[in-house]
Write a structure and sequence with these properties.
This protein is an alpha/beta fold and 197 residues long. It has 5 helices and 8 strands, in the order E-H-E-E-E-H-H-H-H-E-E-E-E. The strands form 3 sheets. It has a 4-stranded mixed sheet. A two-stranded antiparallel sheet has the order 5-6. A hairpin with a 2-residue loop joins strand 5 (149-153) and strand 6 (156-160).
């Protein structure tokens, strides 16, 4: 098979790809795998709200319902479902992705829902420490993150590698059967918090 031209991204609007097919392509990232796909043409999903690698391709899972499904399958004309989904994603410190098709938001009723989503996301951005990024920016960061290492240094931990100044060390523990993250003080080497064990 001859080499394929290198393209930065893939996106299948019907999410009909399989992960095995992606390995044969030369894309930097893909956004076609839903995290949950019970209403999609191909049922299943990757079951995560975090990016992950399939070979050399970074998968940015679709973590929110797409516009067609919202409007035409669920007959929903508000952003309530998107709000619920973001609350669940944020609880897992995950990545929220939205795919909105211009031809689906051309009519006043659907455009109004899309404008409400953008307005609400703008308010979230003002109130919370969220990173709003384009897919290629996530791809660049995740690849840099993947090349970093966590090293022990005199009884504490630090992140090393190119871009480490942008990284934050977090310690995970379970509290009442929930996973809780504690961010390390970025001004000094990090010592894991006392977990009582």
């Amino acid at each position: 098979m001859s080499a394929l031209p290198e393209f930065p991204a893939a996106n299948d609007p019907d999410a009909l790809e399989t992960q095995e097919w992606l390995e044969a392509l030369e894309f930097s990232f893909d956004m076609s795998m839903p995290n949950v796909a019970h209403l999609d043409p191909q049922r299943g999903g990757c079951c995560t709200v975090m990016p992950y690698f399939i070979g050399d391709i970074l998968e940015l899972p679709l973590t929110t319902v797409q516009d067609y499904t919202l409007f035409h399958l669920l007959n929903e004309w508000t952003i309530d479902l998107w709000k619920i989904q973001l609350e669940m994603i944020f609880a897992k410190n995950g990545m929220a992705t939205f795919i909105v098709h211009p031809d689906y938001v051309i009519e006043p009723d659907t455009r109004g829902v899309y404008e409400a989503l953008l307005s609400w996301l703008g308010e979230l951005r003002k109130k919370q420490a969220l990173w709003f990024a384009l897919p290629h920016e996530i791809d660049s960061w995740w690849r840099a993150r993947n090349r970093m290492s966590l090293v022990e240094d005199s009884g504490s931990w630090r992140i090393v590698g190119e871009g480490a100044e942008r990284a934050v060390l977090a310690f995970a523990k379970t509290v009442d059967r929930r996973l809780i993250y504690e961010l390390a003080d970025t001004r000094k080497p990090s010592v894991p918090p006392n977990t009582g064990s």
